[in-house]
């Protein structure tokens, strides 16, 4: 039934265009996430190593946010996070994931 409704009422126009990939943003995001995972999971490393990797996480995360604000086509739109519904939904998803994994 839904497919029939889509066929009759959904009208979309698709404009092909060339997308610009934000490689710097992707690299900074990857470094930030990997370093955060290392800090959270590595138990045998020394305190100085974890502090250095934690500092790397903070710096790369900050640079990622800076890059996303100035990129023409960002990976993650920072303005989207200003919407209350989006921020609340993401926070609820984070807490649900933590509860399920924990």
Major sheet size, sense and barrel closure? none
In N-to-C order, the SSE pattern is: HHHH
Work out the helix count: 4
Number of separate domains: 1
Low-confidence stretches: none
- Name the quaternary structure: single chain
Instruction: Tell me what portion of residues adopts beta-strand conformation.
Output: under 5%
Return the average pLDDT rounded to an integer.
90
What general form does the structure show?
A: extended
Given the helix and strand composition, which structural class is it?
A: mainly alpha
State the end-to-end CA separation: 40 Å
Q: What is the β-strand count? A: 0
Report the C-alpha radius of gyration, rounded: 19 Å
Helix content: 55-70%
Main features:
102 residues; mainly alpha; extended
List the topology elements.
Elements: H1 2-9, H2 23-41, H3 47-70, H4 84-101
Helix pairs in contact: 2-3
Describe this structure in words.
It is a single chain. The protein has helices at 2-9, 23-41, 47-70, 84-101. By secondary structure, the chain is an all-alpha fold. The chain has one domain. Helix 2 (23-41) runs antiparallel to helix 3. The mean pLDDT is 90.
């Amino acid at each position: 039934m839904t497919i029939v409704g889509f066929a009759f009422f959904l009208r979309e126009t698709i404009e092909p265009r060339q997308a610009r990939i934000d490689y710097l943003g992707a690299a900074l995001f990857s470094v930030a996430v990997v370093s955060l995972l290392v800090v959270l999971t590595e138990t045998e490393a020394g305190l100085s190593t974890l502090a250095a990797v934690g500092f790397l996480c903070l710096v790369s995360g900050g640079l990622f946010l800076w890059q996303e604000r100035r990129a023409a086509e960002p990976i993650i739109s920072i303005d989207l996070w200003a919407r209350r519904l989006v921020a609340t939904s993401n926070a609820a998803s984070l807490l649900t994931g933590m509860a399920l994994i924990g």
